[in-house]
Design brief:
mainly beta, six-stranded mixed beta sheet, four-stranded antiparallel beta sheet, 10 strands, 49% strand, globular
């Protein structure tokens, strides 16, 4: 199983980033997919989740209205569109199928 995140980087407050997570080694369409994040000194927290066919999504209150999770089952990829980014969104972002985790991609929001 591999989950490979990409798309992180340094962005100014108010900016946007789109994270991608390419999955392989399991039947992608059968799994709920999630994005988590962990900031230095803090516990890992759930950011967003999406059901196997994308019919249901959920978000942490802190990102509702700013982040959108989506998936492309044909490409075995899950995305996280992040808009109106804030410094408190700075963290390592991980995707997970709730059994396996990727290595993460760093998002830094700073002026």
């Amino acid at each position: 199983v591999q989950l490979v995140e990409s798309g992180g980087g340094l962005v100014q407050p108010g900016g946007s980033l789109r994270l991608s997570c390419a999955a392989s080694g399991f039947t992608f369409i059968n799994y709920v997919m999630t994005w988590y994040r962990q900031a230095p000194g803090k516990e890992r927290e759930l950011v967003a989740g999406i059901t196997s066919v994308g019919s249901i999504t959920n978000y942490a209150d802190s990102v509702k209205g700013r982040f959108t999770i989506s998936r492309d089952n044909a490409k075995n990829t899950v995305y996280l569109q992040m808009n109106s980014l804030k410094p408190e969104d700075t963290a390592m972002y991980y995707c997970s199928n709730l059994e396996y985790w990727g290595q993460g991609t760093q998002v830094t929001v700073s002026s």
